[in-house]
């Protein structure tokens, strides 16, 4: 077992190992501690954005300038990005690292996220968006693997973290 802060620190260390220096985030209570850790760490420029599309644009532009980046958001936000990802990242073969939550899965007590549990992963599968599910703390290194893969295939890749991992319970 870990604390939320220890998990967040491990996520930040994985990002640093990828040479990520720019992190765009949208508020999500499950990743709030991760966002705080990025914001506190001088190795990163943390940019809070108000729309998921802004994170895609910012991180895609960062790639074109040679800057490693990551977008951090909840599952609902990622589901709104199907058009932006397929139009920008797929068309122009721009890698994008996304860290997202697995909302609506067993253990999520928010009834309003039930639709995420039903449609989130099938939506990613429908557009062939590669993802890694991080459902235990020992899988946190999959973040670097996902980042490296995004660079290999020149496409977006998502590292999806479960509630239990983010809470330090898995």
| Proportion of helical residues | 40-55%
Strand count: 6
Main pleated-sheet profile: 6 strands, parallel
Number of domains: 1
Count of individual helical segments: 8
CATH H-level superfamily title: Thiamin diphosphate (ThDP)-binding fold, Pyr/PP domains
Shape verdict: globular
- What's the level 1 CATH class? Alpha Beta
H-E string: HEHEHEHHEHEHEH
- CATH architectural group: 3-Layer(aba) Sandwich
How would you describe this protein?
There is one protein chain. With 170 residues, the chain is of the alpha/beta class. The protein has one domain: Rossmann fold. The chain is built from eight helices and six strands. Strands 2-1-3-4-6-5 form a six-stranded parallel β-sheet, sandwiched between helices. The longest helix is centred in the first third of the chain and has 14 residues, at 4-17. The chain is globular. The protein starts with a helix and ends with a helix. The relative contact order is 0.18. The mean pLDDT is 93.
